[in-house]
Amino acid sequence: MSNVFEVLRGPQGTVFGRNAQAGAINITTRQPSDSFEGMLRAEAGLNSESENVGQISVSGPLIEDRLGGRFSAAYSNLGPDVDNKSSGGKLGKVETGVFRGSLVYTPSASTRFVLTGNYERDNNIPSNFLLKNGPSFPAVQIDPKGWVNRQLSGLSLTANHEFERLQFTSVSAVNHYNFKNLTNNNFKNLTNNNFKNLTNNSEALTFSKMFSMPASSFIPATDWSTYDESQNSLYQELRLSSLDNADRVWVGGVNYLHNSYKLTTNYDSAFFSSTNGTRNGEHDTNSYAAFGEMTVPLYGNDRLKGTLGGSYTHDRKTYDSKYRSNGFPGTVAKFHQSGVLSDDMLTGRAALNYELTDNNSIYTSVSRGAKIGGFPNFTNNAPSGRKDTPYKDSTSWSYEVGSKNRFLNGRSALNAALFCNTVKDENLFALDSASFTFVPKPIDTHNYGVELEGSYQLADSWTLSGGLGYTHAELHNVSEDVAASSGARNGNFVPAVPKFNTNLTLQYYAAADWLGLPDTNIFALAQHQYVGSREADVGSHFKLDAYQLFNAKAGLEFSSFDVYLFGQNLTNERPQYIGLYYGPQSTAITVGHGRVLGVGTQIRF
After folding, report:
1. What is the rounded CA–CA span in Å between residue 485 and residue 381?
2. 1 CB-near residues (< 8 Å, 6+ apart)
3. Is residue 437 part of a domain?
4. b/e per residue, 282-311, with b = 16+ CB within 10 A?
5. Do residues 490 and 510 make contact, with C-beta atoms less than 8 angstroms apart?
6. Helix (H) and strand (E) counts for the chain?
7. Domain TonB-dependent receptor-like beta-barrel, which positions (predicted)?
8. Are 269 and 183 in contact (CB under 8 A)?
9. 573 strand-pairing partners
């Protein structure tokens, strides 16, 4: 439903007002077309583990030269593919419904309003964490199974007016998020309740290794929790900027964000005092920012341009949390904590870009990023009657030098970048050894690396594209208390960051005359992705395995419809995404979906 994704690396906030320390993704959605058009797409999986998809999209003018609209809806159902040794069935089903609509009103050639609304709902039956290298992997032993419900909705209005020498833009948005689940290993606690959401988080195969007990001791098991969170946000940005064709590009503006977040959890555990009791937490954030950036030619040379930008942000966060015990030995009956955090942040960036030719350029940039600290969502110390410490502010410096090139009259492209980032007090989540809960740990990080991406048109019908990345990321200045509670050490690799990753895509598109099909095109695509091994946690207790994914698609394009076959993850890899270290014999991971095969069609009208 979106047509352009732009990944912006490094600290942001000088062009888009909301401050972002690590980077941002700029999404440009498809706008209404000048004439009526529509599309129907359907995909059917060839086995029970595959995915079924349905999508419809219509677009066109509603009032000639004044009002246009685009409306899209989609539904997908991904089949379960992780064995549940307890029930004999499978887990991992993902069901998603999405709607998006936009209206574009242009009362004059210089004024434009875009109203966009979206809604998404997910209903999942998760497989949760699996015992790494466990029997019959990938498999779990869960009773009862669980489910998760998530809803997102949003409404935004963008207004733009062009004056003679500049343009004014206003962006207004409201968003709502709701997530509910229940994590349970004790069916006895559920029989008298009608929970809307259920998920399991103390899987029997893993817990049997952790406690050296038979897996049957946890069927039904001993630990469960409910998790209900909601978030409402209001965003307003006002900015002035240069016209799109200006020689000197500049932007300046202000924005405001209000965010209200509520979390209710109910934990019951036979083993850990921290994962017992009911918690009600409320977090409110008010953020105010002013920002600006300008790019101008230097020394009268239009090929050499300099960029300078900065932003000022004032954040204020309030927090209120209440805890009530369920009677677990050693816990206080109830506990209340609240607090206020307020801080100011200055960030910015400077860059130089030199066009060697019309098709080749080199650039360099330096950026400073920051993000305010906050209060933990989960009050780890509340059961013992102690306040939780807010996590720290974080600051960073990012450096990059690179080159962008096109060769052979545009048939080939090659981009390269060297980067280096240093972060002070990055809040990395770690499993606390004393409480067996996840808490943010302030740790300095340092990383550097290289990225290459390119494409080459092999022939009129063949295109090859790909990329390669290398990243070296380490932990620095680990404090003694962080090391004692999490196992982190100076020189450990930053978790979830692969040293090497590659991607390669080969595409074919040509007339199908040689198949005896006039006015028809044939298309094919083959993809390969490699992601190297990564540390699972800050303690470097174990690694997440490297993985490779092979995808393919081939079909025929007729004048008004397409038909095709597709395969995702053809070798049936189980990529590992997140890891938990409970002990030497009990390491748990989340895994991606296995092989998906299907047939599809797309009808244009």
Report:
1. 14
2. 29, 30, 57, 72, 74, 98, 100
3. yes
4. ebebbbebebbbebeeeeeeeeebebebbb
5. no
6. 2, 32
7. 112-570
8. no
9. none
List 293's β-bridge partners, or say none.
251, 309
Q: What's the whole-model pTM score?
A: 0.89
- Highest mean pLDDT: which of 126-140, 220-234, 285-299? 285-299
- Give per-residue pLDDT as tens, 234-266: 999 999 999 988 889 999 999 999 999 999 988
With contact defined as beta carbons under 8 Å apart, do 549 and 575 qualify?
yes
Residue 423 lies in a domain: yes
**More confident call, 379 vs 172:** 172
Distance from chain centroid for Cα 363: 28
Q: Count CB-CB contacts under 10 A for residue 147.
A: 21
The answer to whether 289 and 254 have CB atoms below 8 angstroms apart is yes
In angstroms, the CA 520 to CA 559 distance is 7
> Could you report the per-residue pLDDT of 40-49, keeping only the tens digit for each?
999 999 888 8
Helix (H) or strand (E) holding 140: strand 139-140
pLDDT at 556 over 80: yes
pLDDT value of residue 265: 87
Rounded average pLDDT over 540-569: 97
DSSP designation for 188: G
Domain span at residue 523 reads 391-605
What is the 3 state secondary structure string of 238-306? EEEECCCCCCCEEEEEEEEEEEEEEEEEEEECCCCCCCCEEEEEEEEEEEEEEEEEEEEEECCEEEEEE
Say how many C-beta atoms besides its own lie within 10 A of residue 598's C-beta: 20
DSSP string of 381-427, one letter each residue: TGGGT-PPPPBPPEEEEEEEEEEEEEEGGGTEEEEEEEEEEEEEEEE
First vs last C-alpha separation in the chain: 17
Task: Find, among 437, 441, 440, 438, the residue nearest to 274 by Cα.
Answer: 437
Handedness of CA 432, 436, 438, 439 (dihedral sign): negative
Both structure tokens of 248 = 């000197």
Residue 489 CA to residue 543 CA, distance in Å, equals 16
Identify the CATH number of the domain in which residue 454 sits.
2.40.170.20
Neighbours of 543 (CB within 10 A): 17
How many separate domains does the chain show?
1
Encoded amino acid at 517, one letter: L
479 found inside a domain: yes
Instruction: Report H helices in 459-588.
Output: 480-486
Structure token digits, residue 474? 């380490």
> Has residue 102 been placed in a domain?
no
| Residue bearing tokens 């490297």 | 546
Q: What is the pLDDT of residue 23?
A: 57
